[in-house]
Structure prediction request, 239 residues.
Amino acid sequence: MIYTKSCTVTGSRCDPEVKLSVISAFETVEDCITELLGSMHIDGVTAMREYNAMWVFSKNNFRIFRRPDWLEEFQVRCFISKHSALRIFVDTEALDKNGKPLFSSRVEICALDLDTGKPRRPETLGFKPEMENPKPLDNMDFIRFSKEPAEKIESVTVRTMNLDYCSHTNNVEYVRFILNTYPLSAFKERALTHIEVHYNSQSFEGETLDIEKLTAGGQEQFFITRSGKSIVSCSLGWQ
Prediction:
């Protein structure tokens, strides 16, 4: 199944350049995945209410080709591209009115039992292999992160509005924390083209998280930690 929807860049979704903000693009992907899974009756809310489990994003490979302008209309298509014993992979791409790519994403999702916290097989939450689309997006493989020590640059506290419906920090908020370490001028001087995020653990209201940064091999890598334990790894690519 391929889920499609039409979107418009409204004022609340714009950044200071009057284009769709990076955060809004991330939220567009998250919403489309929710709606895709909802149409299959295997979404996160259904997982909680009917299967005593929750879906969590474990990785997101997000690429930006062009951010659409204010009031520009674009089309989004979203589908399950493949699966493994414990994960499903969802591909999303946004296209302009001429069919040219704006941004794309591959998200790795796994299911956790709400009582034990242990992984659940997707089939126990209603997933069926025939839900998969046989034509995944190209060049969306995940990277490996550096093991070199990184330097702490900032600390943030998880607040109420950072939480999602499972009461832990929403995956998009980690990207917001990291992008907020840059001044506005950084985004005007160069274009952000690639964000890859690996979600290693969860965080909750009131917790203090440290943001560490490492520049290696031409990439800027970030690590969000809590008391020295890794929560998120993130790599940024610029042009």
Summary: The domain at 3-131 is CATH 3.10.129.10 (Thiol Ester Dehydrase; Chain A). The chain has a mean pLDDT of 94.
